[in-house]
Amino acid sequence: MNETTRTYDVIVIGAGPVGENVAERARAAGLSTVIVERELLGGECSFRARDASKALLRPVVARADARRVPGLAQAVAGPLDAGAVLAHRDKMASYRKDEDRADRLNSVSVDLIRGHGRLDGPRRVRVETPDGGTITLSARHAVVVSTGTHAAVPALPGLDTVRAWTSREATSADKVPGRLAVVGGGVVAVEMATAWQALGSQVTMLVLEDGLLQRMESFAGRLVTDGLREAGVDVRFTTSVARLARENGEVRIALADGGHLVADEILFATGRAPNTWDLGLETIGLTPGDWLKVDDTFRVTGVADGWFYAVGDVNQRALLTHQGTYQARIAGAVIGARAGGEVVDDTLWGTHVATADHMAVPQVVFAHPEVASVGMTTHDAVGFGHRIKVVDYDLAHVAGAHEYAEEYRGQARMLIDLDRDTVAGVTFAGPGVTELLYSATVAVAGEVPIDRLWHAVPAFPTIGEIWLRLLETHRG
């Protein structure tokens, strides 16, 4: 084999969890596979997002839960040990080293090339390696892009002077800022406001909309807002930033309404953009910087011969690691089937089609209270023209909930598809509700008939009793 030109069945660009999964699945299908990565193996999720953020949030949520339990509250009355939390965060993020991931790829016979990979026409990828060399790769069957996203920060006067945080800095900072301004009202904004306030920051949230978590059921945003404010976070709605400056180490924030705010750091959690600018998309007729639109088998639309795939955040279907790895499992199986001349099972809920992307996407917000949801929201269902019944229940009326808090506050909502008599969506907000999410996901993805769900008996006294109460409320 020529040292600078190599041919594989499958080339994967991007070695985050999604890229790793699709590469492993392709290799398991008997296809020679190489993965290309210019940064750390494991990507944003492993080092600066999922693992790091949850390591910051776990002690925060655990302490909040403990403070609600009689007999335990006084034992956890003091502040968190910020140094210990940050040290544990670094351990959980593998100290931003990726040797174990390289060993994992080697163990499953997936080749690794470190460098910047760009498309160079159909089925070709050119890789610039760290030593200044170039390797040209050719794919017999597929090129898969799993390059993820980066923080989308609005263009504001003075932004380049303040060294603003994005999610990367927010999950990897090595000290607690005295004052932190958080711009945004989505999941990242909520979780980072929760974490840094508990670690000792004075946190102010500047939210353009009139509520938090706008893509979820409205009660979830209201309960989280109450929790943040009770914890000491200053949450300001319908507020936007006009300009920024850093003077004497402080960030000076001018607001659009004429107000001013001073902080030590400012975090922008205002959305994501695809990592496709420097990917060589123009060599195959696509526009650099665009999201990669795909069909339900993850072939990129508008590319002849069907050799180009995109999985994970870069296709904008569901910007969640667990959903991206679901896509990777499907894409790897699809590529293997097509390479072997097999029939692709693209029926609803089939082996080679991502039905869950449309109907059963689960998500958790790690705040206090927690929020867990799967499937459609009320707004989604109405927008799509579904006939639904909204069933609400106060979680404080569930006996098992009071094991989490003497004075429990929370809510559950189940959406019933009246035409199919199945669960179309579920949202829970309250302490401990993440434990309910997988059962909700099974109910939605499995399209379990309501009459059958009635026979799934929850143990007493557990928070899972909410299922019985929702069904009783539905039956009346």
UniProtKB/TrEMBL annotation:
Domain FAD/NAD(P)-binding: 8-325
Classification via Pfam families: Pyr_redox_2, Pyr_redox_dim
Pyridine nucleotide-disulphide oxidoreductase dimerisation domain location: 361-467
Protein name as annotated: Dihydrolipoamide dehydrogenase
Note on cofactor: Binds 1 FAD per subunit.
One term of GO molecular function: flavin adenine dinucleotide binding
Residues given in the record as FAD binding sites: 54, 117, 313
Keywords: FAD, Flavoprotein, NAD, Nucleotide-binding
Organism field: Actinacidiphila glaucinigra
Family: Belongs to the class-I pyridine nucleotide-disulfide oxidoreductase family.
GO biological process per UniProt: 2-oxoglutarate metabolic process
Top-rank taxon: Bacteria
Cofactor requirements of the protein: FAD
UniProt binding sites for NAD(+): 184-191, 271
Listed PANTHER family: DIHYDROLIPOYL DEHYDROGENASE, MITOCHONDRIAL, DISULFIDE OXIDOREDUCTASE
